[in-house]
Specification:
pyridoxal phosphate; binds pyridoxal-5'-phosphate; 6 helices; six-stranded mixed beta barrel; single chain; 18 strands; alpha+beta; 29% strand; globular; 334 residues
Length: 334
């Protein structure tokens, strides 16, 4: 068995899942082979951004079985996003069941254990149906597409250089905490700008004062302090990353590190010896430097992933691929 992944490009699998919400209720939902949608041109998702999504992965274990990581947490976050977007929620049970069905129907697209590639799972909801005025849609589609993906790096992960955006991805009490397309639309321009300037991506500061680190592109920021503590910022406009939550748990309960959630000022980074971006897609991307207002701050661990970050990374992927015992009921074996 070989991996069908082509980097993070979309590779069409055999089936996707679709369920319709009409007349105040969800239908049963079903699997189908075609990955296109026919919707009204006046759908709220097209004009007013009424949509949200999730991202998680299916992992092939050494024994050949397939497993999911913290799928109920994705289901809960999806409910939060739907509520914020005035969309009907799907029950935890329906969400988890749909993810399981979709993955099992595409089992041959879950890459082999040895490749360390995974099947990326993208549940999403969109407002559909005839509508013109600004109001929640009359109908909705909940769908799940999957694609095999390769991790961004293998083995000794090289650090990347980051810029800092002058723009915001979300407002102070806007939609930063929920996983909605609008935040991403707002982050494309600064991301392209950052890449043009030679950076891997850009950091977003808190939208109110532009002094504190909030997010790294579409990932959470964390650091390891001189004292060996795990530090990550907290704010109402940061997306509650399941990867970050897992790293906090591993740092505290497996590595015995102190976990600190507090502001990290962009012009005061000297207390950090390692820095990284974390999220489902890239897992952990180590950050070697941050350039802010023409000044390049280089972290002590600036070439390859630092020692503590590496330990966190190995433990996390060990749990995700089933090599390390699940410490906290995070795993669902299919
Ligand atoms: C999805 C996402 C993350 C990462 O969340 P995970 O649950 O770890 O995948 C971080 N920041 C933003 C803005 C996101 O959309």
């Amino acid at each position: 068995m070989i991996s069908k992944a082509k980097g993070f490009a979309y590779v069409k699998a055999d089936y996707n899942y679709i369920s319709y919400y009409k007349d105040g209720k969800w239908d049963e939902g079903h699997l189908r082979p075609e990955d296109t949608l026919t919707i009204s041109a006046t759908s709220t998702s097209l004009h007013y951004g009424q949509q949200c999504f999730e991202g998680l992965k299916a992992y092939r274990r050494k024994d050949g079985k397939i497993q999911l990581f913290r799928v109920e947490d994705n289901a809960r976050r999806f409910q939060t996003s739907c509520e914020r977007m005035m969309m009907p929620t799907v029950s935890i049970e329906k969400f988890v069941d749909a993810v399981k069905k979709t993955v099992l129907a595409n089992a041959e697209f879950v890459p082999p254990y040895e490749s360390k590639h995974t099947l990326y799972i993208r549940p999403f909801m969109i407002g559909v149906g005839d509508n013109l005025g600004l109001r929640p849609a009359p109908e909705f589609i909940f769908s799940i597409i999957v694609s095999p993906v390769a991790t961004y790096f293998d083995g000794d992960a090289k650090c990347v250089n980051m810029g800092v955006s002058d723009y915001d991805r979300a407002a102070p009490y806007g939609t930063g905490a929920v996983k909605v397309g609008g935040n991403y639309a707002a982050s494309m321009y600064p991301q392209v700008e950052a890449r043009k300037q030679g950076f891997a991506d850009c950091l977003f500061l808190d939208p109110k004062t532009h002094t504190r680190i909030e997010e790294v592109g579409a990932a959470n920021f964390f650091g390891i302090t001189k004292d060996g503590d795990y530090i990550t910022p907290k704010s109402p406009s940061i997306l509650n990353s399941i990867t970050n939550r897992s790293l906090k748990y591993i740092a505290q309960h497996i590595l015995g590190l102190k976990v600190i959630e507090e502001d990290i000022y962009i012009d005061q980074l000297d207390h950090l010896v390692e820095a990284g971006a974390c999220g489902t897609a890239a897992i952990i991307t180590p950050i070697g430097s941050i350039t802010y207002k023409g000044h390049k701050h280089v972290f002590p661990a600036s070439k390859v992933m630092g020692e503590t970050t590496k330990k966190l990374y190995e433990l996390l992927i060990g749990i995700q691929f089933g090599d390390i015992k699940d410490p906290n009921d995070w795993i669902t074996v299919l």
